Amino acid sequence: MRDALQAKALRLTRRFEKHLPVLSRVAGRLVEVNVLEAATRLAAQCFLTAMPLLFVMASLAPKGFEDQVINSLRSAFGLYGSAETQLRQLYQGNDDQLRETVGAIGLLMALLSATAFSRAMQRVCERAWQLSKASARIAAWRWLVWVGSWLVILVLQGPLREGFGAGQILGIPLTLVASVLVWWWTQFLLLSGRVRWLPLLPGALLTGVAMSAMSVTARLYIPGALNRSLSEYGALGPVFTLLSWLIALCAAVTGCITVGAVLAQEPFLARLLGTPSGTGRPAAFGRPPVAPAGPAAHGGAAGAPGPAGAPGAPGTTGTSGTTGTSGPDAGPPPPPAPSRAALPYAPPAPQGGDCGP
């Protein structure tokens, strides 16, 4: 019974791969990336490292920056009521005490610890593109730049969503375009430039659209959920609400980047976007480089043994035993022996126990 079920599952899998090859490759890559585990790790790093950095920076920053952060968070999540009150108390309640406790060294340590979020996001992008892990020497400054850039982007969320005073009619398309550009740049930065810009565009488009849709969902879901959790569980309630929403958000990011990487390697989009594939495929796609066809690839470089009866190349010995001459009286050097790949194939004549050249 068990063998019959396994055989049936195998037949269904092969049929799925035959008739829906793109979906089959997408599903295989999503399983390889392990979307749920990667999203959970990414959300945990965001909640434990990046969000405290935001609170510390807002508390140590000037008053105008603090107000801008509050307005941006309220606009992004649609906060009102007790949730908005808690947010203002968190930022404005104990600024002097926090400045004395944290200081510049504490801010620096918070920034360095926030790079754990950058490293987790970098690993998601590398797994989506089947890349090896970049060395810390190359990627360290990119982690800091990415975290700092996202803090700036979060501060600008309020004015961006309002269309810089023009209203939602301009704010919605601006938010979508900005989201696509940010995720396009994010992939290029965290992949250390190992994948060119155009192949990263499908993933950026999918992620930008998904994040715009998630932002609408957040404005509908987060305010009521935060207010209910505050009333039922106190200050601990919003932790579970925000962490659950972050896991869903990071799952969407991981899935969209992975699907975009698979689509960029499909034949049609690969030709359109210039995604490297086939012969000479770079190691950036998780495979060792393939040497281009030529004499060196087939052992036909100068100095290799020549064909039967031919004189050897300069300084080498052919099968006839003659050696290329050198010196002032040798005249012009003979042309290099052709490679085996360049010669027309002819079956070798049997010579006793010899198996051929």
Automatic annotation (TrEMBL):
The chain crosses the membrane at residues 42-61, 101-118, 139-160, 166-185, 197-222, 242-264. Its main location: membrane. The keyword Cell membrane applies. It is a multi-pass membrane protein. Residues 280-357 are annotated as: Disordered. It is found in: Cell membrane. It holds the Pfam family Virul_fac_BrkB. Residues 280-329 have a biased composition (Low complexity). Keywords: Cell membrane, Membrane, Transmembrane, Transmembrane helix. This is Uncharacterized protein.
